[in-house]
TrEMBL record:
Keywords: Isomerase
Superkingdom: Bacteria
Xylose isomerase-like TIM barrel domain segment(s): 106-262
The protein's name: Sugar phosphate isomerase/epimerase
Length: 283
């Protein structure tokens, strides 16, 4: 796979030069000084490449390392033990910065989930969604209390707890945006947020407004672009104004920029474009 993969990556990276160049040219018109995304904090959520991870996890992790990714967000172990998966990441030249684990798994055995996270070597343990049955003020209030409990346990284990949003988290119940309950009823020492920039933008909410109201609580971005018709798009080919969002790096608390695309046409092309964009974007 090595030879063909390298040829594929040369094609994938070559296909992004024009788009990336336009982005830099546009950014250059902004006032100095310009800032960039730290290369060692550019990652990709493995959900983006899940189809090829399922058939060739070692080759896929190696391909991501060849593209230049420093980190990955783990989305399942594809039938491997945590120890084996950690070994494969090491061989592929990437490190896990976060892992997604379910609400149900955390409820069933939080210590087991933290042990898996420890073996993987992650900094962040992330619950990526809540059950639909909790989509009420009382349900999100309950979730906030559980997050607080898990966040304390994560901190004791040397990790941090985060919640990842979808658009449904921004619906209103009894006049209250449900997502706001999680922010308002948790302690920033123990609970923070992996902000999916697509899923907050699509329902019409502004990430910057959240940074202003809740500074420092968004250490991870899922950097996901949106086409004009509202569907998913490769980074730099869509409509989301990432430089405007990234420019608030001090206020947001951002540390990790994690590329994601839910339905890529060709996963490694999407991955290459995402890395290329984050390497070149200026803000």
């Amino acid at each position: 796979m090595t030879t063909s993969r390298r040829g594929f990556l040369r094609f994938a990276m070559g296909s992004t030069v024009v788009a990336g160049g336009l982005q830099v040219a546009g950014a250059a018109a902004h006032a100095e000084p310009l800032h960039s995304v730290p290369p060692d904090h550019i990652g990709i959520q493995l959900y983006t490449v899940r189809n090829i991870m399922a058939t060739d996890p070692q080759g896929t992790l190696g391909a991501l390392g060849d593209i230049g990714y420093a980190t990955v967000g783990v989305s399942g172990l594809y039938g491997h033990t945590p120890e084996k998966f950690r070994e494969m990441m090491d061989i592929g030249g990437v490190r896990a910065v976060l892992t997604h684990t379910s609400w149900d798994a955390m409820n069933a055995n939080v210590q087991r989930e933290l042990e898996i996270a420890r073996i993987l070597g992650v900094r962040y343990v992330v619950v990526p969604s809540l059950p639909g049955s909790l989509r009420t003020v009382a349900g999100y209030t309950h979730a906030a209390a559980k997050f607080q409990e898990w966040g304390i346990k994560c901190r004791s284990a040397g990790m941090k707890f985060l919640f990842h949003n979808h658009d449904v988290d921004f619906v209103k119940a009894d006049g209250k945006v449900l997502y706001d309950i999680l922010l308002e009823q948790t302690d920033a020492r123990f609970v923070n947020f992996e902000l999916d920039l697509y899923w907050i933008t699509k329902p019409g909410y502004d990430p910057v407004a959240y940074f202003e109201r809740h500074p420092g609580r968004f250490p991870v971005f899922h950097v996901k672009d949106m086409a004009a018709n509202g569907s998913f798009e490769d980074l730099g080919y869509g409509t989301i104004d990432f430089p405007r969002i990234f420019a608030r790096y001090a206020q947001s608390g951002i540390r990790e920029y994690v590329v994601e695309h839910d339905t890529p046409k060709v996963a490694l092309v999407t991955a290459a474009r995402g890395h290329d964009y984050l390497m070149k974007v200026r803000f």
